[in-house]
Amino acid sequence: MTGFGYNVLGFGTIAKTPIPAYNIQYLVIAGGGSGGGRQGGGGGAGGYLSSVSGESTGGGGTLQSVFIPTVDTAYTVTVGGGGSAASGFIDTNNGKRGSDGSNSVFATVTSTGGGAGGADDEDHRDGNDGGSGGGSYYIHPGGANQSSGTANQGYAGGTSDVGSAPYPGNYGPGGGGAGQIGQNGVHASEIVGDGGDGLASSITGSSVTRGGGGAGGAWIYNWSSHSATLGIGGTGGGASTPTSLTSPSAGTANTGGGGAGGTDSVGSGNSQEGSNGGSGVVILKIPTEFYSSTTSGSPTVSTDGDYTILVYNSSGSYTG
Predict the structure, then answer these.
(1) In sequence order, what DSSP letters do the residues of 245-302 get, joined into one string?
(2) Between the CA atoms of 147, 151, 154 and 160, what dihedral angle is there, to the nearest 10 degrees?
(3) What is the residue-averaged pLDDT of the chain?
(4) CA angle, 135 then 95 then 137, to 5°
(5) Burial zone of 14 (CB within 10 Å; 0-12 exposed, 13-18 middle, 19+ buried)
(6) Are strands 263-265 and 218-220 parallel, antiparallel or unpaired?
(7) What is the arithmetic mean of pLDDT over 108-129?
(8) CA 81 to chain centre
(9) Which pTM value belongs to this model?
(10) What percent of the chain has pLDDT over 70?
């Protein structure tokens, strides 16, 4: 006979009915890059990989395939940290490039850490490639190369045009986001670049936007005589550019947001350093009838209709 999921076989043997193959939908977001120092570019958002039906993955790419687990197999979950802000100057005047965010992983799915924002030192101008790219800073007479995002994960960072001396100010570009390229910094219009927008997901049952790029930084000769338009972080946790004498905001934790570029003004020595990127997150959507309840790392567990939702804000595992 058959009862409660077990088959009673001949010879008194009891065999458990195999669990059929089932799908896990996921959202895997890496840590965001940090912003470049002193008038630098914003950090790129962490890579955004989604397999959630009806939603979007990063960079305008192809929605990822769902994951099919093997029963009784433990799968690693790694939540990437945000990039740390660069410390100090290259010399007494020039800022350093930020640092990249770290990758996030679920089983065989890896999202790439966000790229660091560039700075005004001639060897640190390029924003780094990443899940989304960091902003690349131009300053007269040099140039910088635009960073790239990773396919299916995020967009490129912005760039700044080449300003002309004498400078009223320098205006950094935004880092790329999961849903949009970073905005350019424009000297003639005194515009600091916004971070690229993130993407909204309802994988938890409520719509939340994550994966925004960090805004650019600025250097203003005289804040009282210039009406610079300061950048804002991309929706989804990208940090915003501060006003003078205020430290830039870090990317928001567990959104993969990029950090802002540092802002400076003459003689103040204020917020020359960029800000940290935000840590990533891994979210799993599992049919409740197949949910094993075997986890590590203390994910937040909730239900939404017929699904159990696991939110990992730190590393752990799930056993299929």
Answers:
(1) TSPPPPPPTTTTPPPPPPEEETTT--S-S--PPPP-EEEEEEEGGG----EES--EEE
(2) 20
(3) 86
(4) 25
(5) exposed
(6) parallel
(7) 93
(8) 10
(9) 0.90
(10) 81
